[in-house]
């Protein structure tokens, strides 16, 4: 299982985060985006070494990069005092890799942080790269070009669900189930809006296929997440962690996150007016109701 989990985490570190940062169009993030391969390479190497001082030092280097990224969140929040749902989703994305990196440092050092066993810490790393960073970022992008309450609900419920799942780690299985329900509702809303975007008449065939694939994958992967959380809370039969990594984890990484980011990059390249322009940092904080 951990070989697969490590491969998924590497995808998040080396591909998903820098691609997502590029999509924000924020020049404030250009420097950390250029430095990101340096930090991510250390984090990726840390995954494959035996637990100990060397792996921990490499993980700390990656954590430093995530902290530098997270420090942009309060600056953007202060600048955008009338922060809307899309802005909240963006700030969640910027902070999430730091949560993953803290778990990585603890796991690589063999320290059961807050009493969580090393297996749970290892799974926290991909969770906050994909459910935290990728899902929140994509929910914010969807919110920015989709009018109506559905887009705003998606941009708020994905960060809230991610936070509730994190809180559930401390409060117990029922709290984690509540977080999974909220996160699933948000992700399915993202999927529905993405499906509609994929059927827009002016999409080229490749972009449409990427959007529709990412939307369809969410139906299955989040149903698996609900099944696992419900089983943990009630004792009902549910998938094992190995099975979840091979289905839910891999599906969200490749089918949702990667396909979505590729699609949004194509949308941004083909129709820059629909997404934030690199010179206009206010769009991500203030823009809320653009039509697809």
TrEMBL record:
Xref: InterPro entries: YndJ-like
Transmembrane annotation, as ranges: 6-23, 57-74, 86-106, 118-141, 153-171, 177-197, 209-231, 243-264
Ranges where the record places region Disordered: 272-292
Keywords for this protein: Membrane, Transmembrane, Transmembrane helix
Superkingdom assignment: Bacteria
Protein name: YndJ family protein
């Amino acid at each position: 299982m951990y070989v697969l989990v490590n491969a998924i985490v590497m995808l998040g570190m080396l591909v998903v985060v820098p691609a997502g940062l590029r999509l924000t169009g924020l020049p404030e993030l250009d420097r950390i985006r250029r430095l990101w391969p340096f930090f991510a390479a250390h984090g990726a190497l840390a995954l494959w070494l035996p637990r100990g001082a060397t792996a921990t030092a490499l993980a700390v280097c990656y954590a430093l990069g995530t902290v530098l990224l997270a420090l942009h969140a309060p600056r953007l929040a202060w600048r955008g005092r009338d922060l809307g749902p899309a802005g909240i989703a963006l700030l969640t994305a910027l902070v999430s890799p730091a949560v993953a990196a803290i778990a990585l440092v603890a796991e690589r050092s063999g320290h059961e942080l807050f009493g969580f066993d090393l297996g749970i810490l290892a799974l926290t790393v991909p969770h906050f790269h994909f459910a935290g960073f990728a899902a929140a970022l994509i929910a914010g992008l969807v919110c920015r070009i989709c009018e109506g309450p559905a887009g705003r609900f998606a941009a708020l419920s994905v960060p809230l669900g991610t936070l509730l799942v994190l809180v559930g780690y401390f409060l117990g299985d029922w709290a984690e189930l509540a977080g999974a329900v909220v996160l699933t509702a948000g992700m399915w809303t993202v999927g529905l809006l993405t499906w509609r975007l994929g059927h827009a008449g002016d999409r080229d065939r490749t972009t449409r296929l990427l959007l529709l694939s990412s939307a369809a994958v969410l139906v299955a992967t989040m149903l698996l997440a609900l099944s696992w959380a419900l089983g943990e809370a009630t004792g009902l039969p549910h998938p094992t962690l190995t099975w979840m990594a091979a289905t839910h984890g891999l599906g969200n990484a490749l089918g949702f996150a990667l396909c979505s980011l590729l699609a949004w990059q194509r949308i941004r390249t083909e129709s820059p007016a629909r997404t934030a322009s690199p010179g206009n940092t206010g769009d991500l904080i203030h823009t809320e109701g653009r039509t697809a």
